[in-house]
Amino acid sequence: MTAPATGTDGSSSRPHTAQHFSVAPVLDTPEGYVAPGMPGVPVTGYDPVSPAASRATPRRRTALAVALALLAALLGGLAYGCAPLRAADSLGWLTIAQAGLVALPLGRLGGRSRLLPPLGALLAAGALLTGQLTQHLRLVHTAGPGPRGLLPDTLASWRADLRPLDLAFYGIALIGGFLLTRRTADHG
Predict the structure, then answer these.
(1) In the Cβ-directed half-sphere of 11, how many Cα atoms lie within 13 Å?
(2) How far apart are the C-alpha atoms of 98 and 126, rounded to whole Å?
(3) Which helix (H) or strand (E) holds 157?
(4) How far apart are CA 126 and CA 77, in angstroms?
(5) pLDDT (tens digit, 9 = 90+) per residue, 141-168?
(6) N or C, which end of the chain is more exposed by having fewer CB within 10 Å?
(7) Which residues touch 58 (CB under 8 Å, ≥6 apart)?
(8) Could you tell me if 105 and 75 are in contact, meaning their C-beta atoms sit under 8 angstroms apart?
(9) Under 8 Å CB-to-CB from 169, ≥6 apart: which residues?
(10) The pTM is what?
(11) d(Cα 177, Cα 127) in Å, to the nearest integer?
(12) What is the pLDDT of residues 109-140, one digit of tens each?
């Protein structure tokens, strides 16, 4: 049985319920005691600059990524252009490798920026152009430059040698550079 609780109406036959306070009652606590989890408690084992926290958001080095991608495009184009001349017709498919060389630093170091995949596409196509111009520069140089000079003869030779398959290779370079940059950024 329960004892009657006193209320404003007198005695009641309801059981005694817990009292609710809007402010916690003052308990007999020692001077200077602060409950765990309350403000003012020293936290142990917390390091505000922990290595795990710095790894959660990777630092992106966009300028370094663009510089390395430019270097990769230049070196890939020069390697393409300095290949043996008898293999010139089959070299167009190497534009996928050039796109991969450009995309790797852009995606891994640059991160998931919206500007890097189009830049990767342009750099891959630029690497292909650099390679083709280097090939024609070698051809003109071995044949001897004409009266106009080495650079105008190289450009005229490149324009005369363009075929529809070259446009397909430029399309492959653009698409490959874009997609490979985006894919390496997603996995990095």
Answers:
(1) 4
(2) 10
(3) helix 150-161
(4) 8
(5) 888 878 888 999 999 999 999 989 889 9
(6) N
(7) 111, 188
(8) no
(9) 92, 93, 95, 128
(10) 0.66
(11) 10
(12) 988 889 999 999 999 999 999 999 998 999 89
Closest Cα to residue 99, out of 62, 136, 129, 63?
129
Span 80-102, mean pLDDT? 79
Cα radius of gyration rounded to whole Å, the chain: 36
First-residue to last-residue Cα distance in the chain: 70
As a whole number of angstroms, the distance between CA 129 and CA 80 comes to 10
**Residue (of 175, 33, 32, 47) closest to 99 by Cα position:** 175
Alpha carbons 136 and 129: distance in angstroms, whole number = 11
**8 Å CB contact between 128 and 169:** yes
Q: How far, in Å, CA of 118 to CA of 161, rounded?
A: 27
